[in-house]
Design goal:
- The protein is an all-beta fold and 124 residues long.
- It has no helices and eleven strands.
- The protein is globular and about 40 Å long.
- It starts with a strand and ends with a strand.
- The model has no long low-confidence stretch (mean pLDDT 97).
Length: 124
């Protein structure tokens, strides 16, 4: 049974930083591309960042590019999202997702495996 568990969310002031973690189990982690999505109240879930199996490809949404870094540790079965210079508009529930693929995909519909989400709240 695939399980993805996010952690690291919380309340932070604008300009601050957070590091989200996604611990994976029940799958051969190194065979999966990983991604972070977020969903703000009343909005659609949107792609934030993705990373390929071997970390040779990373993709970012324009809204977080230059402020966020996605990474992974295949030995620890964990993916990370470092977010800096946080803005109130970054407030959302952040989800990690896993896709058995060599390609990083930006559509949520490509991902069959999801975590339960972690809340990020950025105060102004």
């Amino acid at each position: 049974q695939v399980q993805l568990v996010e952690s690291g969310g919380g309340l932070v002031q604008a300009g601050g930083s957070l590091r989200l973690s996604c611990a994976a189990s029940g799958l051969t982690f190194r065979y999966y591309s990983m991604a972070w999505f977020r969903q703000a109240p009343g909005k659609e879930r949107e792609f934030v960042a993705g990373i390929s199996r071997s970390s040779d490809t990373t993709l970012y949404a324009d809204s977080v590019k230059g402020r966020s870094t996605i990474s992974r540790d295949n030995a620890e079965n964990t993916a990370y999202l470092q977010m800096n210079s946080l803005k109130p508009e970054d407030t959302a529930v952040y989800y990690c997702a896993a896709d058995f693929s060599t390609v990083v995909k930006v559509s949520q519909w490509a991902y069959a495996n999801w975590g339960q989400g972690t809340q990020v709240t950025v105060s102004s």
